[in-house]
C-alpha cells in the first residue's frame, strides 16, 4: 500500500499501484528505448517524463545544440586483477545493459569519442575498491563507461564527480551469475555544473547489485538508475541521499524492471531541501511483468523540508502484471522538521543549530552506512554539516 504524510507547502507527494491491464510507467515514455537520437523528439516540457525538468537549464543537452567543447579529467585506480580499456563505439560490450530511454541519453551515446570498459575477472574478490574520479574542466562533455563483473566476482566501485562541466553520460553495470557489486556514485559538482546520466544495471542469476547515489552539487542534476535481470535469484538494492540547496534542481528517476521470476529489489531514497527555489524530484517506478512470479519488491522515498521556499515532487509507481508474488509495496512521505525533536534536544542544553544538525544526521545515517567505506562516509557527513552551517551563516 502507498504511504504518505500530509505534505508541507511546496510538496507534491503522490503515487499509484496499477494492476494488469493498466499502465502507469509506459505513459511517461514518449518513445521506446533507442541508441539513435533521431528516434526521440526534442522535448518541450509538456511530456510526462520532462514536466518537472527546467529544460532551459540543460544547456542544450536536450535539443542537440550542446556540442562537445570541454574536458573531464578522469583518474581510475583499481587492483591489479582489474582490466581497464579504452574502446570505440563498435565494441560489442557497449549497450548490453540497456539502451537510452530519452533524448539526452541518446545524445550522449551518439556523441562520445571513446568509451571505457572496466572488467573484473571471474571469481575475483577485490580487497580494495575501484575508484573513478571525474573532474569537470569546463565546457560540454559526453561519456560512456561499462563496468563488467564476471561470474562470482565481487567488487566495490566509487564514481566521484567534481568540478564544473555540462555533461551527459551513460554508465553500464553488467553482473555475471553470482557476482556481487556495490557502486557508489557521488555528485559533488561545482554549483554551476549540469549533469544528466543514465545508469543501467543488468543483474545475472543469483547476483547482487547495490547502488548508492549521493547528490549534493550542481545547478541541475538528473539521474536515471535502471535495473533489469537475466536470471532468477537476482537482488538489487538502490539507495540514495540528496541535499538540495538554494536554487538547485536535483532529479532522480528510477526504474526496476522485474521481468524474471524469483528476484528481489529494495529502493530507499532520502532527501533534505533548504533555501529558495530548491527543487527535488523523485520518480520511483517498479514493473512486475507477467512472467516474474515470486518477485519481492519495495520502494521508499522520504524528504525533509528544512526551510520555506523549497519544493519536492515525489511519485512512486508500482505496476503489477501477475498476482504470483511474494510482496510489493511503496511509500512516500514529505515533512518539515519536527519541533518536538528540536525541543527535546534543546531542553538538554544542546543549541538550536547543533540540534538541527543532529536531526538531519540521524535522518541520513542509515543510508550513509550502506556505503561501507569509512573515508567516504566521513566525507559525506562533513558535507552535510557544511550544507547546514551555510544555511545559518
From TrEMBL:
Coiled coil: none annotated. Residues 136-363 form the SUF system FeS cluster assembly SufBD core domain. GO terms for biological process: iron-sulfur cluster assembly. Pfam families: SUFBD_core (PF01458). Transmembrane segments: none annotated. NCBIfam families: sufD. Belongs to the iron-sulfur cluster assembly SufBD family. This is Fe-S cluster assembly protein SufD. The gene is sufD.
Amino acid at each position: 500500500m502507498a504511504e504518505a504524510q500530509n505534505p508541507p507547502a511546496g510538496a507534491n507527494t503522490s503515487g499509484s499501484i496499477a494492476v494488469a491491464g493498466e499502465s502507469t510507467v509506459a505513459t511517461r515514455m514518449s518513445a521506446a528505448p533507442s541508441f539513435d537520437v533521431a528516434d526521440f523528439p526534442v522535448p518541450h516540457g509538456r511530456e510526462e517524463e520532462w514536466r518537472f525538468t527546467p529544460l532551459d537549464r540543460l544547456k542544450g543537452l536536450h535539443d542537440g545544440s550542446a556540442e562537445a567543447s570541454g574536458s573531464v579529467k578522469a583518474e581510475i585506480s583499481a587492483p591489479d586483477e582489474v582490466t581497464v580499456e579504452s574502446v570505440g563505439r563498435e565494441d560489442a560490450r557497449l549497450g548490453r545493459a540497456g539502451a537510452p530511454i530519452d533524448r539526452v541519453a541518446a545524445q550522449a551515446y551518439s556523441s562520445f569519442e571513446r568509451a571505457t570498459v572496466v572488467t573484473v575477472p571471474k571469481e575475483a574478490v577485490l580487497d580494495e575498491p575501484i575508484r573513478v574520479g571525474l573532474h569537470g574542466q569546463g565546457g560540454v562533455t559526453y561519456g560512456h563507461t561499462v563496468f563488467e563483473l564476471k561470474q562470482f566476482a565481487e567488487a566495490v566501485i566509487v564514481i566521484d564527480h567534481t568540478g564544473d562541466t555540462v555533461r551527459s553520460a551513460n554508465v553500464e553495470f553488467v553482473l555475471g551469475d553470482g557476482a556481487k557489486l556495490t557502486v557508489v556514485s557521488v555528485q559533488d559538482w561545482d554549483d554551476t555544473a549540469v549533469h544528466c546520466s543514465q545508469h543501467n544495471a543488468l543483474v545475472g542469476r543469483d547476483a547482487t547489485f547495490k547502488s548508492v547515489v549521493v547528490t549534493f552539487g550542481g545547478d541541475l542534476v538528473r539521474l536515471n538508475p535502471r535495473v533489469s535481470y537475466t536470471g532468477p535469484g537476482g537482488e538489487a538494492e538502490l539507495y540514495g541521499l540528496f541535499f538540495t540547496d538554494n536554487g538547485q534542481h536535483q532529479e532522480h528517476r528510477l526504474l526496476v524492471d522485474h521481468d524474471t521470476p524469483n528476484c528481489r529489489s529494495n529502493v530507499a531514497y532520502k532527501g533534505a531541501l533548504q533555501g529558495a527555489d530548491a527543487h527535488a524530484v523523485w520518480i520511483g517506478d517498479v514493473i512486475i511483468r507477467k512472467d516474474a512470479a515470486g518477485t519481492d519488491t519495495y520502494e521508499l522515498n522520504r524528504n525533509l523540508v528544512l526551510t520555506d521556499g523549497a519544493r519536492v515532487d515525489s511519485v512512486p509507481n508500482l505496476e503489477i502484471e501477475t498476482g504470483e508474488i511474494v510482496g510489493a509495496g511503496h511509500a512516500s512521505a514529505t515533512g518539515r522538521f519536527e519541533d518536538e525533536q528540536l525541543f527535546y534536544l534543546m531542553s538538554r542544553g544542546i543549541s538550536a543549530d547543533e540540534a538541527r544538525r543532529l536531526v538531519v544526521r540521524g535522518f541520513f545515517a542509515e543510508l550513509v552506512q550502506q556505503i561501507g567505506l569509512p573515508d567516504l562516509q566521513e566525507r559525506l557527513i562533513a558535507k552535510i554539516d557544511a550544507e547546514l552551517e551555510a544555511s545559518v551563516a
